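Design request, tokens follow.
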């Protein structure tokens, strides 16, 4: 089923709820519909807009937006402990996590309550509480718009990194994700490396699959604003990765500064951007209609009526303040258009 809109207001299609127009938006339900669209015309400018949870519009979009709406989730096959699950791009990510937990499948539970769609998860390599999408991802099915070919990319071809993938780089503007396939397990494999998760799970009665999901949902709700009530895109900034020697000098001055292992190896470690912003006195800071969330300093919020430009100005203030105080650069996680 395909719907098409002209000069559409994107306010209800982005979680920041900023008011911007798009020249044209097309929803597609299948590879065939998408293939026909790009075969019929060759738009000079186009982009994918899925759930709109990791994007900030700073101007009207003078091109074509394509949006996946197919949302089927299914078990492909099961062999011993391995269960392969395919989710179409338009499925709500947290619906997918709940679906797997209800069926006793381990692997995605630590990613509970992350907003967005299943098709966007590989792009950003979403992660939380010691887990990332790539940990369970087997492959990504995508359509190449120049040729109309549908290809399945194995996970090792997707160049996954910290909040990064080939879909943000080489394949940006070339491929549209149609579905993702995950390999999950029926064997309990709890990941409880974060103190607040352990405490909440224990309070709920132990490390069952449902308890872990419930614990993480409770923690996220206690820290992160509901996008229906307060416009935001979740974590606006990435946690910076720095040289271990530099981090240790900072920790000598700030003993309570948390450090985390980095995927880049032993000589580099990850700092907590939220902690850095908080120590700069910016948690809860407000400038007009925009602000830093009072419970989570990684989150910038729209209190109502803010423009994308105003959000960017606040982001630059936060980056500059952290750089001046700690000598650390923090990059944005949100896709800015």
């Amino acid at each position: 089923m395909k719907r098409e809109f002209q000069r559409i207001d994107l306010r209800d299609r982005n979680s920041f709820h900023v008011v911007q127009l798009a020249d044209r938006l097309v929803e597609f339900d299948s590879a065939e519909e998408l293939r026909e669209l790009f075969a019929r015309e060759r738009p000079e400018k186009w982009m994918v807009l899925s759930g709109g949870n990791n994007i900030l519009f700073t101007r009207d979009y003078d091109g074509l937006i394509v949006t996946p709406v197919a949302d089927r989730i299914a078990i492909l096959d099961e062999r011993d402990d391995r269960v392969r699950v395919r989710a179409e791009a338009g499925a709500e990510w947290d619906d997918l996590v709940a679906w797997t937990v209800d069926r006793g499948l381990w692997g995605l539970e630590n990613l509970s309550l992350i907003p967005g769609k299943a098709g966007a998860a590989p792009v950003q390599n979403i992660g939380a509480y010691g887990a990332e999408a790539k940990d369970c991802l087997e492959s990504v099915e995508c359509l190449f718009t120049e040729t109309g070919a549908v290809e399945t990319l194995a996970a090792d071809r997707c160049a996954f990194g910290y909040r990064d993938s080939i879909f943000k780089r080489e394949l940006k503007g070339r491929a549209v994700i149609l579905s993702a396939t995950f390999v999950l397990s029926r064997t309990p494999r709890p990941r409880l490396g974060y103190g607040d998760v352990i405490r909440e799970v224990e309070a709920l009665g132990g490390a069952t699959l449902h308890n872990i999901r419930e614990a993480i949902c409770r923690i996220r709700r206690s820290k992160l604003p509901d996008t229906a009530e307060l416009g935001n895109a979740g974590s606006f900034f990435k946690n910076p990765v720095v040289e271990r020697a530099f981090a240790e000098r900072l920790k000598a001055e700030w003993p309570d500064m948390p450090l985390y292992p980095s995927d880049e190896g032993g000589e580099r470690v990850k700092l907590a951007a939220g902690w850095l912003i908080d120590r700069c006195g910016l948690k809860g800071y407000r400038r007009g209609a925009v602000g830093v969330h009072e419970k989570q300093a990684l989150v910038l919020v729209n209190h109502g009526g803010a423009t994308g430009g105003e959000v960017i100005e606040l982001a630059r203030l936060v980056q500059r303040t952290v750089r001046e105080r700690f000598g650390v650069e923090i990059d944005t996680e949100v896709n800015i258009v």
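Comment from the thread starter after seeing the answer: thanks! Helices lie at 31-40, 93-102, 121-124, 195-204, 209-223, 244-253, 273-279, 308-326.
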